[in-house]
Amino acid sequence: MTFRQFQQIQSRRSFLDTCVGGAGSIALAHLLGVEGRSAELGNNPLAPREPHFKPTAKNLIFLFMAGAPSQMDLFDPKPGLRKWHGQPLPPSMTKDMKLAFIKPSAKVLASSRTFTRSGQSGIEISDYLPHTQTIADNICLVRSMRSDQVNHHPGQSLLMSGSPLVGRPTIGAWATYGLGSESQNLPGFVVLSSGRGASGGSTNFSSGFLPATYAGVPFRKSGDPILYLSNPEGVTEQAQRLSLDTLRRLNEENYERSGDEQIASRIASYELAYRMQTSGPELLDFSGESKNTLESYGVGEEPTDAYAKNCLLARRLVERGVRVVSLIHASWDDHTNLDEGLKENCDKTDKPVAALIKDLKQRGLLDDTLVVWGGEFGRTSLGQLKHLGDKVGRDHHPDGYSMWLAGGGIKGGQVIGSTDDLALHAADDPVHVHDLQATILHAMGLDHERLTYRHMGRDFRLTDVHGNVVTKMLA
Amino acid sequence: MVGFLVLNQTSPGVSSLSWALLLASLAPLPATAQSKVDFSRDIQPILSQKCTVCHGPALQQSGLRLDNQNDAMKGGKSGAVIRPGNSSASVLIKRLEGLDDLQRMPPGQPLPAGQIELFHAWIDQGAEWGTSSETSTPDNGHWSFHPIRRPSVPEVSREGWVRNPIDAFILARLEAEGVEPSPEAAPSTLLRRTWLDLVGLPPSPRDLAGPANHEQVVESLLDSDHFGERWAAPWLDQVRYADSDGYEKDSVRPHAWRYRHWVINALNADMPFDQFTIEQLAGDLLPGATTEQRVATGFYRNTLKNREGGVDVEQFRFEEVVDRTNTVATVWLGLSVECARCHDHKFDPISHKDYYRLFAFFNELDEVDIDAPLQGEIGPYLQAKPDLDAKIEQLYRKYKVRELQRPWEAKMLWAGDNPGVEHQWDTSWDIIDLYLDHGQRILRTPPESRTGRENYAVTEWFMRNYSRVTTKDEYAATGFKQAVKELHEIVDAFPDVSRARAIEVSREPRPSHIHEAGEWNELGEWVSPGALTVLPALDHTDETPTRLDLARWLVSDKNPLTARVVVNRLWQEYFGAGLSPTANNFGLQGEPPSHPELLDWLAAELIDSGWSLKHIHRLIATSATYRQSSATREDLTEKDPGNRLLARQIRLRLPAEILRDAALSAAGLLDPKIGGKSVRPRQPEGVAELGYAGSVRWHESAGSDKYRRGVYVHYQRMTPYPFLANFDLGERNVTDCTRERSNTPLQALNLLNDPVFFEMAQGLALRTLSEAPRTSFDSRLGHAYKLCVAREPRVTEKEELLGYFVKQRELVEADAEMAKAWFPPQLDGIERTEAAAWVGVIRILLNLDEFITRE
User: How far is A190 from chain B (nearest CA, A)?
Assistant: First the structure.
C-alpha cells in the first residue's frame, strides 16, 4: 500500500465516522471491510485532500458582480476624461477597442463621481462606495484587469471557467475537486444569488466535465436553501428518521448479498442528506448573531437586506468549512441611466461587503479566507444612448478594468496596475483573468498547471494553456 | 504529480484514468522475450502519453521526435536512440531507466518497471513500427485505424455456455485467465434488467407472470415503440439535444422536438445506421430530399446559439461550425479533434489543416426552419389559412402597421449601410440578426419576394421592437403592445403545421480557411473540404467532395472507426463501460479495448447486417454474457475490480429519465404516449428564476402531459429540470458519449423529499391497496415489491417492513393532520391511516438502492 492509499483510507475512515457511524447501527465494519478490496470505489469525493503546497487561503468567497461594474466610476478615477466629455475621440485612439453595442464614434462620458483617498494606503475609491473606503487597507486593488470577451455570457464563462465556451468546470468546482471540503454536512461549493439572474446562468457554477459532485449548489432565495431539503409536508422528523432507518437496513441487506460498493456509497449519501437536513436550519438561523453584527451587514433593512443576508451566510458557510462560496449579484450592466443604476447596486452591496471583510477579520477568518470582488469586464469611457430620451450609460469594455482581492495571503492596501488616462487600455502590469485564476488557486495551495483532469484524451486545467501567478498580489 | 491526479479521480463514476489503472492491473501481461510485443497496443500509447508532448509534432526537444518511425529511428541531436535488436545499447532505454548519469525520462514520474520491460522487449525484437502490413502512413499502426476484419470466433472448452459468438470471445479470455463466468441472474432480475435496458420501463406484474423465454422477451421489447424512446436518450446526449439556445438568452426552441421525434421513429423502425447517418448529415443533399430527410438535418441545429445583444454574429457562427466539426468527429469517428482547431494535434495524427478541411464541409450550412407537417395536420391548416390571413391583415390595418413598417424598413437598411450615425438604429440593425434568424437578409429582400413566414416574422419583430427607435410615448401611441398580444391570440387559435429546425446550403458561397490559433478572425491558408488524412481516402465524383460524400465516407466499409465506435457505445449501455472504456476517444490517448477481436466482430456484424442496430442489440441482450448475475465475486475483486473481463454483469444506477419513468410507471401515473412536443412537469419555484434576468418561463403542462416519459421533458439548457440534472443528465452543451453516474446526497434529498416523488408514493400506495389480490400485509407488500423491483420480498424484508408499517401507522393514528398529509384523498373502503402507513412503505421502496438500480 502506498502512502497515498493509506491517507485515502484514513480520510475515508473519518468520513464514515462522521457521516455514518454517528447515525446509528450502521454496519460500519462492512463498509470498512470493502477497503481491502478497492479503496477507490465508494470513496467520498468531497473528503478533504492535501493541496500541492502550503496554502494561504483555505476558503474562497467570490463576490461576483455580474454584468460589469463601471471601473472609472468606482475604483479607477479618470480626470483626463473631462476635457473630452461630450466629444468623440479621434479614430486613431479608438481603433483597437472591442465594443458590443456602440460604435467608436460614440461620445466620451466623464465620470460624475468624486474619489477619496482612503485608509493609510490612500487608495482612491468613489463616493458611491463609502463603506468600501473603510476597508481600503485590506484590499489589493487591481486596476489593469483584462478579459478577451466583450459579451456577458462568454465573459462570465471565461472569468469563471477559463474559457468563453460552455462546458468547462468553474473555479469553485476545480477548487473542491482539488481540495475536497472541510464540511461533510454541507455542499463543498455553494452559490448565493441576489438581484436578477446573471447572463451566465448555471455556466457560472458548473462542474463542466468534472463529476457533478463538484458543481456549485445554488441556495434558493426563498423556501429551502437547498432544493428538497425539507421533508414533504406532513413528514415529521420522527417519521423521516423511522423511514431512513428502515431504508438503511434494507439497503444493508442488499449490500451484504451483492457486495456492490455503490450500495455502501448510497447508504452514506442518505445519511449525509439527513445531516444536511438537520444542519441546514441551523445554518440559516441568524438568532445567535448579535444585533451589532446584523446591523453592520445591513440585515433587516433596505436596500441592503438581500445582499447582507448572503454575505452573512457566506461567513457562516466558511465557518462551517465550506470550501467555496460564490455570491452572484446581477446586474451591473448599465447601458443606460448609469448614475442611478450604479448607485442602486452600490447601495445594496457596499455596506454588506465591507461588513463581511471586517467580520471575517475580527473572527480571525480573514487570514485563511480569500475574498475576490469584481465582474466579467468593465465599461467604456464612451457613453451609450440606447433609446431616444434615455439617460446616458456605458458599453462593455474588456481591456482594463478593476477588481479587488482581500484576505488569505493577499497583500492589502495596495494598487496593482493602471489604465491609460482615457481608460481605453490596461497600461502597467496587465492582469488577465487567467492570471487572476492562477493566483487564486495558488493562494489555495494549488498549482494551476498541475490541477488537471483528463477529458476527451486531454488534460484540461482552469487556466487552459495560459495564466501566471501574480506574485505582487501576495503578502 | 500522477499520484495527486489518481487521488482525485476517485469519483463515483468510473473515470477514464481509474479505468487506466484497472486496465494496467490486467493487461498487458508483462512482456517477456517469448511474447511478441504489439507496437500499437503496447508501445505507441506510452509514446503518445508520455513522450510526444516534448518529442512530437509541436516540440522536438533535443531534436528528437517520437511520433513517427522515420524521425524516431533517426534519433536526436546526439544520434540514434533506438538500436533495433539491442535494447541495452539503446539510449532510449538508458533514459527510461536513468542509467549512465543521463537525465531520466520522462521527467517526474518514471515509467513503471513493466512498461520499461516492454520497451526492452520491443527493441530486442527488432523495434518494428506497426504490426501489420498497413504502414503506409506513419500513424496507422494504432489499433482503431486498422481496417475492420471479421475475426474468427475462438474455440472454447465450455461450449455449452456459449449462446452466440459474443460469449465465445468473452469465455475464451476468461478461460485463458482461469476465471469462471457467473451463473445466470435470477429470472426476475433478468426480466427487469432486460425491460429497463431495452425499453427503459420496468415490467408489470403481468409481465412477470408471463412466459419466461428470454429470447421472446427480447424480441417483443425490440418491437415495442418504447424502444426508440429509451435509445433516443444516449443519442440525444451525443448530439447535445436541448429545447433552448443556451448562453445568456437561452431562448426556447419551440420546434426542436421535431428532430427528437425523427430520432425516436428512426430507431423504432431500425433505420440502418448508414442511412441514419446520411440523413442527419446530408439529408438536404439527397436527390429529391423528403421533408423527413430534411428534418433529420436538425442534427446540426442542436448546437448552442448565442443571441446576446452585442455579440458578433460571425464569431459565433464560426463557433457553431467548430462545434459541429467536433461533434461529428467524436460521434462518428470517436476522435477528439478539437486540439487541432488551434494547432496540429499533439497526440493524434490530425493536423491543423486536416481540421479545417473537415470544418469546410460544415461551413456552408445556413440555418432554416421548415414546415414539417405530421400526419393529419395539413388539411385543417390549409383549410383555415385564408381565414387566418384575413384576420391578420385586418389587425395590421387596425393598428396601421404597414404605414409605419415601410419607413422603418427603409431606415433599417439605411442604418445598415451607415453605421455609427444614429446609435439606436445601429443597435436595431445589429440585433435583428441575433433575435430573428436571417433578419437582415429578410429585410434586404423586397416584401413581395419573401415567404409568408418571413413576412410574418419581420412584421411581428417590428411591432415588438419599434420601441427601440422611438420614444416611450411614441411607441405607446402605436398600440403595438396590445396589437402583438392580439396577433398571438389570433395565430394560436388557428391550426398550424409542425415545424422543424433544418439547414440549407448557404446562398452565398463561403470559402473556408485555416484559422490561425483557432481564432475566428485570423484567416490563414484557403482549404477545400476533405477527410482526415490518416483515414482511407474519401470517394467523390465532383471535383470538390460534398457533405453527402463525407456522410457516405463515414459509413463506408473502408472507414475503420464508425462501426467500432457505434458498437462500443451500445455495449457501454449494457455493461456500464464500453469494450474500450473511452467511448469518447478512440485516438492514441484512448484505452485499447479489453476484447479487441470481439469489438471487431461486432463491428463486422453491424456492417454485414446492413447496419442494423437492432441486430446488435439482439446479439448483446440474448448473450450468456449479458444474462449473468451482477453479484460481486470474491475471486474477482482483486483480479478484475473494474469488471473488464466480464465474468459477471454489473449493477448500474438508472439514467435520470429512466429512473423517473420507472417511478411513474410503478405508480401507475405514466402517460405512455409516444413522440410529440416537449412537456414541462411540475418544477419547484426558484429554479427557472435562476435564468437570465427572470426570462425563463416554466408553465407546467396540463393533464397527463406532466407524467410523460423523461425523454420528453423540456430541457432548458441554463436552468435544467432539477431532477434530470441531479441524476446526471449532462449539460448537453457539447457532445457527450458517456454519461456520468454519480451518487450524491442531493439525489437522496430529491428522491426522499421531492413532492413529485411523494405524490408517486401516494399513487403507488393507492394502486397497491386496490390491486393486490388480497388485503393481507403480505399480499400487498408482494404486489408493491413486484411493481417496484419485479420480485417478491424476502422474509427478512417482510419483517423489516412490517415493523416499520406498525410504527408508521401508530404515528399517523396519533395525528389526524399528519395522516391527511400522507394520504389526502378520502375513499370508500380505504382507511386513511392504513393508506398513510402504506405511503410510508412505498416511499421506502422508491428509495431502495435496488429500485434506482438495474441489477
Answer: 13
Tell me if B561 is assigned to some domain.
no
The three-state (H, E, C) secondary structure of B156-218, written as one string: CCCHHHCCCHHHHHHHHHHHHHCCCCCCECCHHHHHHHHHHHHCCCCCCHHHHHCCCCHHHHH
Instruction: Give yes or no: residues B384 and B488 share one domain.
Output: yes
The pLDDT tens digits for B56-73 are: 776 788 888 887 888 888
A33 touches chain B (CB under 8 A): no
Q: For chain B, how many structural domains are there in total?
A: 4
Which residues have C-beta within 8 Å of that of residue B776, sequence separation ≥ 6? none
Distance CA A308, CA A301 (A): 9
Q: Are residues B122 and B196 in the same domain?
A: no
Tell me the one-letter amino acid at B24: A
Domain A59-201+303-473 sits in CATH at 3.40.720
Which residues does chain A have within 8 Å of residue B810's beta carbon, measured at their own beta carbons? Answer: none
Tell me the sheet residues that pair with A371: A61, A406
Torsion (CA) B327, B330, B332, B334 in degrees, nearest 10: 180
Q: Which of A74-83, A204-213, A301-310, A420-429 has the lowest mean pLDDT?
A: A204-213
Chain B residues touching A259 at Cβ < 8 A: 631-633
Query: Grid coordinates standing for B131?
Result: 504490426
Q: Which residue has the cell 442602486?
A: A344
Mean pLDDT to the nearest integer, B69-96: 87
Residue numbers of the domain that contains B215 = 188-223
Verify cis geometry, omega within 30 degrees of 0, for the bond prior to A303: yes
Q: Is omega for the bond preceding B106 within 30 degrees of 0, making it cis?
A: yes
Query: Could you say which of B79, B111, B126 is where a domain stops?
Result: B126
Please give the Cα distance from A419 to A426 (Å, whole number): 4
B114 with B210, same domain: the answer is no
A228: which chain B residues are within 8 Å (Cβ-Cβ)?
Answer: 684, 746, 749-750, 752-754
Question: Quick check: A88 contacting B, CB < 8 Å?
Answer: no
Q: How far is CA A173 from CA A323, A448, B180, in A?
A: 10, 13, 42
Question: pLDDT tens digit string along B678-722?
Answer: 999 998 888 887 788 778 889 999 999 999 999 999 999 988 999
Residues 52-81 of A with CB under 8 A from B: 52
Please give, one letter per residue, the 3-state secondary structure of B322-343.
HHHHHHHHHHHHCCCCHHHHCC
Q: Looking at the structure, do residues B211 and B113 belong to the same domain, yes or no? A: no
Query: Given the C-alpha cell 410523460, which residue does it identify?
Result: B708
A25 contacts chain B (CB < 8 A): no
pTM for this entry: 0.84
> Computed over its alpha carbons, how large is the radius of gyration of chain B?
31
Q: Mean pLDDT throughout B178-205?
A: 96
Q: Are residues B192 and B122 in the same domain?
A: no
ipTM of the complex: 0.83
Whether B481 maps to a domain, the answer reads yes
Task: Closest CB to B821: pick one of A103, A233, A240.
Answer: A233
Question: CB-CB: which of B637, B687, B755 is closest to A37?
Answer: B637
The answer to the question of residue B563 being in a domain is: no
Nine-digit cell string for B783: 404486489
3-state secondary structure of A406: strand
Query: Do the Cβ atoms of A246 and B758 come within 8 Å?
Result: no
Choose the final residue of a domain: B492, B523, B542: B492
Nearest CA-CA distance, residue B353 and chain A, Å: 20
- Residue at B831 is within a domain: yes
Domain ranges, ordered by start, for chain A: 59-201+303-473
Contact list, B692 vs chain A (CB under 8 Å): 196-199, 201
Residues B538-586: pLDDT tens digits? Answer: 999 889 999 999 999 999 989 999 999 999 999 999 999 999 988 888 9
A–B CB contacts, 8 A cutoff, strictly below: 309
Do B750 and A187 lie within an 8 Å CB cutoff?
A: no
